[in-house]
Amino acid sequence: MRLAALLTLSAALVQGALVHGAAAQGARPPAETQAPNAPDQKPALPGQTRAPQPERATPVTVTPVVQGLKGIWAFEFLPGGRLLVTEKEGRMRLVSPEGGAGVEVTGVPKVDARGQGGLLGVALSPSFPSDQTIYFSYSEPRQGGNGTTVARAKLVEEGGRARLDGLEVIFRQMPTYNGDKHYGSRLVFAGDGTLYVTVGERSDTQTRGQAQDLSSGLGKVFRMKTDGQAPSDNPFVGKDKVVPQIWSYGHRNIQSAALDAQGRLWTVEHGPRGGDELNRPQPSLNHGWPEVTYGIEYSGAKVGQGITQRAGTVQPIYYWDPVIGPSGMARYDGALFEGWREAMLVGGLVSKGLVVLRLDGDKVVSEERVPLDARIRDVKVGPDGAVYVATDGRSDGRILRLTPGR
Fold first, then answer.
1. Does the domain made of 60-404 have the CATH classification 1.10.246.80?
2. What is the per-residue pLDDT for 100?
3. Which one in 35, 122, 254, 300 has a CA-CA gap of 20 to 30 Å to 91?
4. pTM of the entire structure?
């Protein structure tokens, strides 16, 4: 008890010094006000954590537009403004932003919805208006366990009903593992038509080390063609005993991904207790997990040797301690929020709101928290320029529309 009290006091003193130092220098205080879980860790780069708040908070009006869904995990806007929604338990729906539970899409494969598993990410084909094809990921039940799987199918609507036709599995994360955590996963199409798929390392101590293993599909960002095959310019194509779809590795559990204005991939991954990371994965880069992290174990112990830097690994662009619990991400390219232009919008499961990151090049220059009093699972910018977010409620999932307030 005495040691715990001393650690708490130490963390509070460090946080107080950070805030006092910012005030003394005339700097704006950071959005994060809680003490860090790892007060002795120091950022490797200037501005790598606890960026200042913007000069003025952005007033936001929040309007529920869809209610009564169950365990929303992801959604996409279809041409015409309707939403294609995945629900964790294995349902896919077409809903109108005017409200209602919408139409259930039949033909969805079985999912293992235990723990963090279920029906997960979804993305429209770059040629969706002509081919009506969607891509989605899910925790697939398999002999001996499960794993993150990516499939594609044609979305067909007839007579007020909707179904998936011609379903084809294009990629399976291997190895199969009998667990219920850290599946990832987000799907993002790049400008060249290739598909990025983010996954997790399945959480447990016996699997997490495979994030460093190029023969394993755990803890990776994959880049693939629309049929699941590896593009010839992937960094590890032709290497013996290496998964050719691997783009970057050393990741923990990536549930946020988006492209910037230059078409570059950005991700945010879950840390353990502290250590959520904003990264810009590039070919063959090692992001360090579990050997390098700004987080600690949930027990309070060090992760591995407790190091935050190591040769051969790259530093996160930005990190959080304590965590925000990142899920869902979008670059703001609309016209309604002038102050958010080109900012990255990240959903917060733990912070229960929207995290707005303004960037200058590859550096976070401000962090704004928009409280929404709900766990936010996915984020999209609508065709009207409003920001839409999905809440994580298992029985009362909502999609909220955010517009500028007064």
1. no
2. 63
3. 254
4. 0.93
